[in-house]
Structure formats: structure tokens, C-alpha cells
From TrEMBL:
<protein>
    <submittedName>
        <fullName>DinB family protein</fullName>
    </submittedName>
</protein>
<dbReference type="InterPro" id="IPR024775">
    <property type="entry name" value="DinB-like"/>
</dbReference>
<dbReference type="InterPro" id="IPR034660">
    <property type="entry name" value="DinB/YfiT-like"/>
</dbReference>
<feature type="domain" description="DinB-like">
    <location>
        <begin position="19"/>
        <end position="174"/>
    </location>
</feature>
<dbReference type="Pfam" id="PF12867">
    <property type="entry name" value="DinB_2"/>
</dbReference>
Length: 192
């Protein structure tokens, strides 16, 4: 895919994620946002806090990769390495296989506030700014460290693909948690 189409696709996906979170999750009451559908499942806010922890790392990595003096590049084909494809396949939204998360990225067992949602939306705005800066960057340059093994680097385009797919995956999970919370309340009302 050409870099221009690649960036445009991500911009649309990030705008959609932001709108979904702002319209469907942010208005929910705190008890629904903190409801865990299963004892080991994550609440809405745990899903978003997990994404915030990744955004704190990857947004900074992307910003660093895009900063400094670099030659402006015209539209080009975006390629992928084995590591980039494997990273994407692990987190893509259609892969419903549960993945283990590393300990410091696991927010399970915490009670959070609406500030988590607000931080998520700020990270999305920042990511949109980074994508604008990436329009003329070489998306095939290895420049972004992998969070869990920082000696490995992803290409700029691969890192963007990973970040957006990971966010889509966990926003879908958050939506399912919200639906479970709402269904539980409806069931409780019917029992009374």
C-alpha cells in the first residue's frame, strides 16, 4: 500500500476509535466503567488504561522517530518485516485468541476514574498529530523500539499498524465489557 493511503487509513481509524470512546464509553457511569464481566476479564477502564500505558511508550517512540532532520520522502510502498507482521497478527482485532500481557502493562485489579478515558482521548489526538508528521517520512525505516524487548526495532509503518490494531482490539473488548455491565443491570432490574 502507498504511504499516503496507509496514513489516511490510520487517521480514519483513529478518528473512529476516538468517536466510539467519546460517544459510547465516556458517558457511562463509574460503576459500569469499572464492571468486570468475568473475574479475570478487564473492565472498560482497565482496557483503556492498558492502552494508555502502551501509548505513553509508543507515542514517545513515534515522536522521537519523526523528530530531527530527515529527508522528506514522496509517497512510497510500505513494506513489512517478519517481526512487523508477527506483531500485527498477535494484536489484530480479528484475532480473538487471548494474549498474555506483560506485568507492568496489566492494569487488572485496579479501580480507575474517568480520567483514564480523558487520557486515552488525549493520546489519540497526539497520535493524529504524529500521523500528520509521518506523511513525508520513510515508513520503512527501522526506528521504533519494541516495548517488551527494546533491542528490537519495528519499522515506522509497522509500529503504526501495531499501535492502531492494538487499540482497535482493546476498544472492542471495552465495548463488550460495557455491554456486559449494561446487561447485568437490566437483569437485576428484572429480578426485583
Amino acid at each position: 500500500m502507498l504511504s499516503t493511503a496507509f496514513i489516511a487509513q490510520f487517521e480514519a481509524q483513529i478518528q473512529e476509535l476516538s468517536a466510539t470512546v467519546a460517544q459510547q464509553l465516556q458517558p457511562l457511569p463509574s460503576h459500569q466503567l469499572n464492571y468486570k464481566p468475568t473475574p479475570t476479564g478487564w473492565s472498560v477502564l482497565e482496557c483503556l488504561e492498558h492502552l494508555n500505558r502502551y501509548s505513553r511508550f509508543y507515542n514517545a517512540e513515534l515522536a522521537q522517530a519523526l523528530s530531527g532532520r530527515r529527508a522528506e520522502l514522496a509517497a512510497h510502498e510500505v513494506g513489512f518485516s517478519w517481526l512487523g507482521r508477527k506483531s500485527y497478527d498477535t494484536v489484530k482485532p480479528e484475532n480473538r485468541k487471548p494474549q498474555k500481557t506483560i506485568k507492568h502493562m496489566n492494569p487488572a485489579g485496579s479501580q480507575f476514574t474517568l480520567a483514564v478515558v480523558e487520557e486515552f482521548l488525549r493520546h489519540q489526538a497526539q497520535l493524529l498529530e504524529l500521523l500528520a508528521a509521518a506523511r513525508t517520512a520513510d515508513l520503512n525505516r527501522k526506528a521504533v523500539r519494541v516495548e517488551f524487548f527494546r533491542l528490537l526495532k519495528l519499522r515506522l509503518g509497522e509500529a503504526m499498524l501495531f499501535v492502531v490494531a492494538h487499540e482497535q482490539r482493546h476498544v472492542q473488548q471495552a465495548l463488550r465489557a460495557a455491554q456486559a455491565a449494561q446487561n447485568r443491570e437490566k437483569e437485576a432490574l428484572l429480578v426485583v
